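Cont'd.
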Amino acid sequence: MIAKRSISLTVNGVRYEATVEPRLTLVDLLRNELGLTGTHVGCEHGVCGACTVLISGKAVRSCILLAVQADGADITTVEGLSPSGQLHPIQQAFQEQHGLQCGFCTPGFLLSVKELLADHPDPTDEQIKETLGGNICRCTGYQSIFAAVKCAARKLADPAAGALATGVAQVG
Amino acid sequence: MAVEIPKTIADFPNSGSRFIGKSVKRIEDPQLLTGKAEFIDNLVLPGMLHCAILRSPHAHARIKLLDASKALELPGVLAVVTGEDALAWANPGYTLPVGWGCHCLATEKVRFVGEPVAAVAAVSRYVAEDALELIEVDYETLPAIADPFEAMKPGSPLLFEEKGTNVMLARKFTWGEVDAAFAAAKTVVSEKFRWHRLGANPLETFGVVAQWDTTDGTLTCHGAFQSQSHMALGRAMTFSLPSNKVRFISHPHGGSFGGKGGFRGTEIASMLSRKAGGRPVKWIEDRIEYLSAGAGQAWDRHYEGSIALDADGIVTGFAVKLVDDLGATGEAYGAVSCAKPLASFTGPYKIAAASYDLTIVGTNKLPTGAYRGMGPPPHNWVLESLIDQAARQLGVDPGELRRRNYIPKDAFPYTIPSGNEYDSGDYVAALDTALAMSKYPELRAAQAKARAAGKLFGVSVVSTIEPGVFDWNAYAIVGAESTGVPEAVTVSLDLLGSITVRLGFSLEGQGQYTVVAQVLADYFGTTPR
Ligand code: FES
Ligand code: FES
């Protein structure tokens, strides 16, 4: 067996040290060693985007990145979006616009969208489609995710514009 | 206390509709949006081991030698199971048609690519996968059959030699005077149809954590189960365990679409747990396993269909001959989807006579499963295509021909030839609404214009009845000793006044928990929390 390597990285503002086999993927480190199971694994070969996390604000697929490659990285996972339990505006938008069904793909989408809206606060339809093209959703058909991105952009631009989806009764 | 089950919302004892039919926020969303929903791969139990499965690279082969001793020597490997363990501890899995199955790990031969032959439990999936590379298997390949018509020929290679045939089920249903209807017909339309094998592909694959309590002989499995009571009863039969010693707990699914079977994986993980002295064993199907050998493939069908029409364009007879290629075994219940169309065999039409000549054949392909509501779409496609062809032949608008043949709204409750009773319907109104919403005459005009300009432009009218999955006795038709799904709903009220619901299903993405909360809130006059 190849010798383990020591790495350190910051995830959602918390610094971690770990000793890992060089072959350990970043997503397995996040999920199995750090207990951050919100990042999901759909394909394990870089196709579906379920495992998307941000490294220094850039979306990456954590299933095809080795943990040792993330040594020193500053990572954001879905758990970092709503640390206080209050949903992030992007998460609120996904709920209001029904941008999820089973929700398995959702953490990956949320982080891809977070990168998009950081780079392009008022994205064009083409930019939204280009971004969503990197994540596979097998349930929703994308229209509602597209609407959620637009809604999220509005919310981030004007927090007061919060509840744009009117007529939604609250259950729970 | 007997409770009167309300038939409509108006019969609810406490309130009218405050939540049913209203747009509401789904109660499951916050968990899903924050990544906190407990999908099965998130579950970690103390001492848990990880399973990897070695699979056959051949479609049909005899196992001449299997040596797993080196795998067991690898540090971190706690248990290895092979067909020998399956023979010692398990029965062949329950199948439909009954008796067309094998053990969860191949015992003498493999019958499809991806069939499990051995499995390992180790301290991590990485080590378990390493160990698979140390297992030696020597195969003698056998001729494989991929075509059901070849499989039916005398002298064809046999999946199960002791059966003497690859035909798993042959049954002809005749309802009414079908031959007479065709003999008297003014018009007969006949066509062959090929519906190719397809598959579900949910973003989350199947997964299970199995724990065999070696002290009291109890098996507990957490997993992405679609019908957990069926799974539990089936495993009780596999392992000859009393059914009250088998406990199945369903976790939220990252999509299912009928593809979350997991029968073999659950049995393999259970045996590994038993062999590892009762430590929990997790098996997460990987994407390649899912695509090549998972439970999501279905509907590999060859149809011959005919309809008979009288001089007024009334359909008087409908005859269907189906050869269904079920794959190598009946383990994934694809046969149920051949029976399910009987629940709405003649669709929305008033067709007095019908017949269904059903042959289910085995080939060396992955066993087909319970994809998407289990079976009616290919059958509907046959019937609807025949109606379309008749419309073309008669020069009648396809919407109009359907309208002529609908069961009239005053004929309900209506019993179709195959025996199911439809409770209600107004198909003419439904069609008129759809045609109005789609601006049908304008569509037809646009089509005529496009076609005149040499462009392809399709417009289609389709009417189907989609029966609920388990409203009808599709199981018994293909030989099951049960009639439906053994799932129940329990509603309880505690001392502090909270209402709790226990369901026989888990989240799959359709907002089931929200629906349940809506119904109960209206029933009890409460507000979901
Ligand atoms: S799991 Fe990483 S891209 Fe699919
Ligand atoms: S919501 Fe199920 S995969 Fe996207």
